[in-house]
Amino acid sequence: MSKPDKKQAILDTALTLFVSQGFYATSTASIAKKAGVATGTLFHHFPSKDELMNHLFISIKQEFADAILTSVTDSGNLKQDAQHLWYAAIQWAIENPLKQEFFQQYSMSPSIPLEIREQAMNSILSFMGALMQKGHALGLLADYPLSLMQDNCHGQFLAATRYFLDNPGKWQEPTHKEASFAMFWNAMRTDNG
């Protein structure tokens, strides 16, 4: 196994174990053993279990952002653009259930330091903030503090994806799909939106 393959094996194994056993119950030795690498190899790539968790969180957030960024459009209709983005985000979650379970467990967990969560929100997902700021400027979105709106939207995304992961057939039903976006949009919009 080459170095990149070993590093990826460590990340894939950590993802599975963190989701199935929890962060604190998962040892670095168990990650190394299941990944088929020496413990020293794990520490060569990640100096600590916390560093491994942070890297995993950031890399999955980046994968998520890259996947849904293809849905970011500037059609001139902010609501329509937000809807495309919302649907793409939930579709990614449905297509990547293990990674979404990881987000369900750790996105708001104290296991992920605040600065790592802020990096994910303000750097990797900065296009979301830009969309919200555009909505403020157009008078379509309420003028709430941006960071509060971002966290609220994130919570709504986690709730919606939890629902659709638990009820997979509902995502294909237009009434449920459309209602999920309407609840998301209505939480942010002004009376004009």
What report would you give on this structure?
This protein has 193 residues and is an all-alpha fold. It has 2 domains: 1-47, Homeodomain-like (Arc Repressor Mutant, subunit A, Orthogonal Bundle); 50-186, Tetracycline Repressor, domain 2. It has helices at 3-21, 28-35, 39-45, 49-69, 78-95, 97-106, 114-124, 126-138, 146-166, 174-186. α1 packs across α6 and α6 packs across α9. The model has no long low-confidence stretch (mean pLDDT 91). Pfam families: TetR_N. InterPro entries: DNA-bd_HTH_TetR-type_CS (IPR023772), Homeodomain-like_sf (IPR009057), HTH-type_TetR-like_transc_reg (IPR050109), HTH_TetR (IPR001647). Keywords: DNA-binding. This is Transcriptional regulator, TetR family. Residues 4-64 form the HTH tetR-type domain.
Biggest sheet architecture: none
Q: Could you name the CATH topology of the largest domain?
A: Tetracycline Repressor, domain 2
Tally of helical segments? 10
First and last CA, distance: 54 Å
Q: What is the number of strand segments?
A: 0
Please provide the ordered H/E string of secondary-structure elements: HHHHHHHHHH
Beta-strand content: under 5%
Please state the average pLDDT score. 91
Pfam family, one: TetR_N
Keywords: DNA-binding
GO molecular function, one term: DNA binding
Protein name: Transcriptional regulator, TetR family
